[in-house]
Structure formats: structure tokens, C-alpha cells
Amino acid sequence: MSTINKFSTSEMNALRQLVIQDPRHFLMLPRKKQELLVDKMGQRMSMYTGVFTEEEFRSLGVMAPFIVDEVFIHVDRGFFIDNLDLLLGLCYSTSKMDLVARILQEPAVFGPVKNWNQTTLSQVDRFLFFLPESSVQDISMALMTLGHVEKLFMMQRRWEDGPVGSRCLNKNERMAFFVKQQFVLQFFLGFLSINPLSPTPVVPTCEILRSITPAAWPASSLTSMSSSAFSNCLELMGHDPFLSSYQHKQLLQKVKQVRVI
After folding, report:
1. Do residues 229 and 205 make contact, with C-beta atoms less than 8 angstroms apart?
2. Is 116 exposed, middle or buried (0-12, 13-18, 19+ CB in 10 A)?
3. DSSP assignment string, 34-90
4. Taking the model in full, what pTM does it have?
5. Residues 109, 103: Cα–Cα separation, whole Å
6. How far apart are CA 151 and CA 122, in angstroms?
7. Are 34 and 169 a contacting pair, CB within 8 Å?
């Protein structure tokens, strides 16, 4: 970084083009180095005044979300709304997820979450997982069906398996993000007592667990599966890196019961 700091404007621009053409190595850098590098680029490109324009955003490519928060929060709202497909494919740190959540709820964008409809949810897509728990709870229960929750998990997994998502989050960030996903599933599918309108808790099928990671479900829901469904999905559960020790213990007891039967 000390060497890059000495780059001339032309050298910095050449580096920017290289990263845009092949972002793999940039995405593998430690988060702090990513942010420092993009900060230097932003300074050289005079991005620290006024609106973070579409031209400036696109000029950074995959690096755009790594610009300092003070610049990112001023992203052009028209560009933001019209290019959600592009933005959904990028990588965001925890602080940027919070900023995206704030922007989504602005009156000029989609407004308060309590007023969102099915069209809004389709546009927001996996960004819904960026929302704080307090905002998630304002989404209409009628909109967040098992089918929609399943779709959200599938879209998130598709991104995680892609060239950007597979290199985006470090271990701690991934765990924190999983906790958000888990809350969304358990709040809308009837597992949390804080929701007075909760439907009857869902018992997943093996097919559903292929879309929605097993660790997101309460252990009681997994152990309530039929013996045949449980056995068919046992290997899938065993490979889930987010299963807690408590879930492991409960699943092991279920395994013993199934074997006895």
C-alpha cells in the first residue's frame, strides 16, 4: 500500500483498469487493504465532493462498494433504483450493508418497509437480508411466504457461488450475515414468539432444505421431519458449516431414534 500511495494519476488509472478487467485478486485482499486502495483511487478521481455519480460508480467496477462510507452514502439515487440488478451482484462490507438498508428505506427510493409490496420485495431481492431486525419485522406477513423466503435464500446462495460472492465475505462477516438470514426465516415462518401473527411453525421437507440451509431452522423443526425425509437429508445437514453445537446434539439424538426404528 505504501508503494501504491506513490502512484501517479496515470499509474493509478492503469491499476484501476486492471482490477476492473480481472477483480479476483482484489477480492482476495484483506478488507482493510481493499478499502485503503479504493480510498486512494477515489481521492485521485476527486470523488469526495457532491453526489457519487453513475459515471464514478461504474468507473470503479467491482470496487465501487469499497469507497469510504462518506462517499457511498451520496450515491445517485436514480442510478441506485434503476440499476439494482448491477448492485445486487456486488460485494458489501457490514457497514455498506447498513448504508444500503438506509438508502432502500428513503422516501425517494422505496420508502418505509411497512409500505413495501410484492413488487418492491422482488426488486430488493437479497438486499432484504441487509435490513436490521427492527425493519424486517415491519414487512407484511402476507408477503413473506415460505416460497418467497425460499427464493431469497436461493438468490443469496447463487450469488455466494458466483465469482464475486465466493470471494466476498470473510468468516466473521459470513457468520454475521447468516444470523440475519436465520432471523428472517424464523420470524416469518412462525418460530419466534416476538411475532404475534406467527403462522404455525413449518416442518421443512428435504427439498426445502436444499434451498434453505438446514442451520437456519430450529433444531426442533429439523427433528420433527419424518424419519424418511430426515434420513434422506442427513448428509446435507452434516455438511452445513453453520450448524450450532446444540443443533448437532439434537440431530444426533434423532439419528439414534431413526436407527432404532
Report:
1. yes
2. buried
3. HHHHHHHHHHHTT-SSS-B-HHHHHHHGGGGGGS-HHHHTTB-HHHHHHTHHHHHTS
4. 0.91
5. 7
6. 10
7. no
Residue 145 CA: distances (Å) to CA of 52, 135, 204, 225: 36, 17, 13, 20
Which residues in the chain belong to E strands, given as ranges?
none
pLDDT in tens, 37-85: 999 999 888 888 789 999 999 999 999 999 999 999 999 999 999 999 9
Q: How far is residue 168's CA from residue 171's CA, in Å, rounded to a whole number? A: 10
Cell of 235: 448428509
Q: What are phi and psi of 28, to 5 degrees?
A: -90, -5
User: Could you tell me the three cell numbers for 102?
Assistant: 438506509
Q: How far apart are CA 235 and CA 202, in angstroms?
A: 21
22: phi then psi, degrees, rounded to nearest 5? -145, 90
Q: Output the CA angle 221-227-228, nearest 5 degrees.
A: 115
Q: For residue 187, how many other CB atoms are within 10 A of its CB? A: 20
